[in-house]
Amino acid sequence: MEAGVGGADLKRLLAERPSLVGIAVPGMSMGSPGMEGPRSDPYQVLGIQKAGGTHVFASHP
After folding, report:
1. What Pfam families does the record point to (predicted)?
2. What is the CA radius of gyration of the chain?
């Protein structure tokens, strides 16, 4: 499994079907799925738009 996007965010993406080509967590933040460790940093899941831009899809404390 790659680090970053969790199951809840994937389920939300599939349920809502926004006009995105994908979602991603840049930077491999500590605490994101696959990057569990001694600490958990806040991180954001970005939505990747068809035109190439991004926006915050989800925030995790």
Report:
1. DUF411 (PF04214)
2. 12
